[in-house]
Design goal:
It contains no helices and 11 strands. It is mainly β.
Length: 115
């Protein structure tokens, strides 16, 4: 079973920055994709950004140019650097990974952007 440990989110003013990280308990060899989804208040969970084994990235249109997804050298931790945050980025952010052990989700961390 894959365990994902997310860093704590937080409260930030609009225009500010926040960095989220998520460590997976499996070897990099077994990981196909890592990334982040979010669920804004009263809305469905949506894709934020993904990074694949070969380093390819995919972003939601709403975060392109503001958010950057990356991995650590061991490729077992995914990092989401969020800049120029907007109130509409307020959501619970969930780490996601797809590996040989299957799909797994983090427990979620709250990010609140004040206007």
């Amino acid at each position: 079973q894959v365990h994902l440990v997310e860093s704590r989110g937080g409260l930030v003013e609009a225009g500010g920055s926040l960095r989220l990280s998520c460590a997976a308990s499996v070897s990099a060899f077994s990981i196909n994709t890592m990334g982040w989804y979010r669920q804004p208040p009263g809305k469905q969970r949506e894709l934020v950004a993904l990074i694949t084994r070969d380093g390819s990235t995919n972003y939601a249109d709403s975060v392109k140019g503001r958010f950057t997804i990356s991995r650590n050298n061991a490729k077992t931790t995914v990092i989401l650097q969020m800049n120029s945050l907007k109130p509409e980025d307020t959501a619970v952010y969930y780490c996601y990974t797809d590996s040989l052990q299957g799909a797994a989700w983090g427990q979620g961390t709250q990010v609140t952007v004040s206007s």
